[in-house]
Design goal:
Length: 214
């Protein structure tokens, strides 16, 4: 059934679009991945509503604290979801019989145990053997998610470092730079290998997930 989006808010439409995008990905036929995707999309819709409010009116310090806490939890959930997806993708793509370059001997005990303990992994492997196009789709998605995953990993490391600094230096500066006046989302400052600062907002990560295509 198609959703009638004529009366939906921008935030609700964004959440719906994110869920539709994630459900197109291999593995998301599984109930676990579908549930995680739905929760991530719903939380994104709620955060976008908050962010839009902060864009239209100056945020109080306590508002920024709430937005920061919820944004961090959302980013961690997004990272965990993509990390799990990448790990399971690695497992099935290194399964013998799916690649001429992979032998039974090269499959680790850990991977064999994961496959034995997961009905979903076995189901995906079975489909990959039957459907060459599904395998190509999985490999294209594996490439497509890398940029978003690396951004999330950098943000996760930044937030972890901030937690250590905050514990050692009470009242230290926040890990985020400011609220983006364009979308109300928090902008985080990532250090590049050249020593410069690369700004990245939660909304950019969410938009990247929504626009994800193989």
């Amino acid at each position: 059934m198609l959703l009638d989006t004529s009366t939906q808010s921008t935030a609700e439409r964004s959440a719906s679009d994110m869920l539709v995008t994630l459900r197109r990905m291999p593995f998301f036929e599984d109930a676990y991945f579908h549930m995680r995707a739905r929760h991530l999309a719903l939380a994104d819709g709620y955060l976008r509503t908050l962010e839009d409010g902060y864009r239209l009116a100056p945020a109080m310090p306590q508002d920024e604290v709430v937005l920061g806490a919820l944004s961090e939890m959302w980013l961690m959930a997004a990272y965990d979801l993509l990390h799990t997806w990448r790990e399971q993708t690695r497992v099935v793509l290194t399964h013998p019989g799916l690649s001429d370059q992979v032998s039974t001997a090269s499959v680790s005990v850990e991977i064999s145990e994961q496959i034995a303990g997961s009905a979903n992994l076995r189901k995906v492997i079975s489909r990959l053997r039957r459907d060459v196009r599904y395998g190509r789709k999985l490999r294209r998605y594996a490439v497509a998610v890398e940029h978003i995953y690396k951004d999330l990993r950098e943000l996760r490391e930044l937030l972890a470092r901030h937690e250590v600094l905050r514990a050692r230096q009470p009242g230290g500066s926040s890990a985020h730079v400011r609220i983006d006046p364009v979308n109300g989302s928090l902008i985080y400052a990532l250090r590049t290998r050249h020593g410069t600062v690369r700004p990245l907002s939660r909304a950019q990560i969410a938009d990247g997930l929504t626009a994800l295509r193989p």
